[in-house]
Amino acid sequence: MAGAAPTTAFGQAVIGPPGSGKTTYCLGMSEFLRALGRRVAVVNLDPANEGLPYECAVDVGELVGLGDVMDALRLGPNGGLLYCMEYLEANLDWLRAKLDPLRGHYFLFDCPGQVELCTHHGALRSIFSQMAHWDLRLTAVHLVDSHYCTDPAKFISVLCTSLATMLHVELPHVNLLSKMDLIEHYGKLAFNLDYYTEVLDLSYLLDHLASDPFFRHYRQLNEKLVQLIEDYSLVSFIPLNIQDKESVQRVLQAVDKANGYCFGVQEQRSLEAMMSAAVGADFHFSTTLGLQEKYLASSDQSVEQETMQL
Ligand SMILES: Nc1nc2c(ncn2[C@@H]2O[C@H](COP(=O)(O)OP(=O)(O)OP(=O)(O)O)[C@@H](O)[C@H]2O)c(=O)[nH]1
Ligand SMILES: [Mg+2]
């Protein structure tokens, strides 16, 4: 049988600003994956997370507590959190000892929301990089609240943060616009949703901003920022409604492609994934979506194996 060595593990590092929906995503994605028949282990790497809605296989809170750190070192919540991540970085043996018995599982890492951890602080990147040495192949799943689409200035700042995160974290990367179920409540968007997800011609955003007397003064700055984003040509988004199975399926498809899961242990799966990549279409997943839906409805645990063999 061709494919990855049995020790290779796959998973997702779920990152994004505070309140973007990371913990909710971990719950929704873990339920979806279990319905597909994958063995899932959710790892909480956020010491600030309280009352976790999912069953947690490993909790960083067992290693270091945010409250203890704040009290002992007289730090605020932000500084305390950064210290906790540095402490984890310095004690990765603990994490490895927790993860090794879970080999064979698909990992979801629920990460802290401090933006600096993903844009310039080194601890989280170093933890991910060490995991790669443990043959743990992660996709960074970066959630951004779709609310930001409603304001062109906020959307430009989100594009900058997403680009900085992609460059800093150094993992295969998928950006998501979360909470799509709420987008209609936020008011009418200035452009079609595709415009925000594809991130193509940003000059329209500039024109839209120029109509605001405040932002007119910053046109040159915004032009340079937009030019930078377009020059890298890296940022795009997938819309996510965590309640909608098709939406979660589309996300999973992109994540599996990014971390190589779809080229994994089953020869058949590898072949179909390679054909998909070759023809530039979602050959395997889209043809089996109907079947997966059917099995999801009946919660059949063997669905993934069966669909892979089609
Ligand atoms: N309507 C809606 N609400 C959501 C969705 N995802 C998350 N929420 C809500 O948004 C709030 C924040 O969600 P969390 O999952 O805790 O966000 P988080 O990114 O883990 O937050 P931090 O851990 O504080 O950084 C909660 O009240 C969730 O119920 C979604 O897809 N739709
Ligand atoms: Mg959380």
Descriptive report:
Heterodimers with GPN1 or GPN3. Binds to RNA polymerase II (RNAPII). Keywords: GTP-binding, Hydrolase, Nucleotide-binding. Small GTPase required for proper localization of RNA polymerase II and III (RNAPII and RNAPIII). May act at an RNAP assembly step prior to nuclear import. Helices cover 52% and strands 13% of the residues. It has 310 residues and is α/β, with parallel strands linked by helices. The protein has a 7-stranded parallel beta sheet with strand order 3-2-4-1-5-6-7, sandwiched between helices. Helix 3 (77-90) runs parallel beside helix 6 and helix 9 packs antiparallel against helix 11 (219-232). The longest helix is centred in the middle third of the chain and has 18 residues, at 152-169. It is globular, with a radius of gyration of 20 Å. The two termini are 17 Å apart. The model is unreliable at 1-5, 283-303 and 305-310 (pLDDT under 50). Bound molecules: guanosine-5'-triphosphate (GTP) and magnesium ion (MG). The site of magnesium ion (MG) has 5 residues, from helix 1. Guanosine-5'-triphosphate (GTP) binds at residues 16, 18-24, 46, 49, 113, 178-179, 181-182, 242.
Helix content: 40-55%
* Widest β-sheet, arrangement of strands: 3-2-4-1-5-6-7
Low-confidence stretches: 1-5, 283-303, 305-310
Strand-pairing-aware structural class: alpha/beta
List how many beta strands DSSP finds: 7
Radius of gyration: 20 Å
Separation, N- and C-terminal Cα atoms = 17 Å
* Largest beta-sheet details: 7 strands, parallel
* Beta-strand content bin: 5-15%
Quote the average pLDDT: 86
Cα shape? globular
Order of helices and strands: EHEEHHHEHHEHEHHHHEHHHH
Bound molecule kinds, no repeats: guanosine-5'-triphosphate, magnesium ion
Report the total helices.
15
GO molecular function: GTP binding; GTPase activity
Family: Belongs to the GPN-loop GTPase family.
Keywords: GTP-binding, Hydrolase, Nucleotide-binding
Protein name: GPN-loop GTPase 2
